[in-house]
Amino acid sequence: MLKWDMLDIFVKVANERMTLGMEWTGQESFRSQPLRDWRVGDHVAGRTRSAGALTFATIAGAGHMAPYDKPAESLELVKRWLAGEEL
């Protein structure tokens, strides 16, 4: 899983481009997936794209220190990833 914070614009943009350009067996599947919302409760926690073992995720309203800016969303992201659940 690769996670970037939506307010950390320079890192997010560069790393989203990197994930889209990586050469791997699931590249076409990953690139064809649209970004979609992921939620914590009733609110949108960020955006995500997944294919195979690769997940790109953002946390809405978080800067470089996402666990400080958005602790509930950061924890939920890690919990779901460790449990092998979809965002």
Automatic annotation (TrEMBL):
It holds the Pfam family Peptidase_S10. The keyword Cell inner membrane does not apply. GO terms for biological process: proteolysis. Keywords: Carboxypeptidase, Glycoprotein, Hydrolase, Protease. The keyword Glycoprotein applies. GO terms for molecular function: serine-type carboxypeptidase activity. It comes from the Eukaryota. Belongs to the peptidase S10 family. This is Serine carboxypeptidase. It comes from Hermanssonia centrifuga. The lineage of its organism: Eukaryota, Fungi, Dikarya, Basidiomycota, Agaricomycotina.
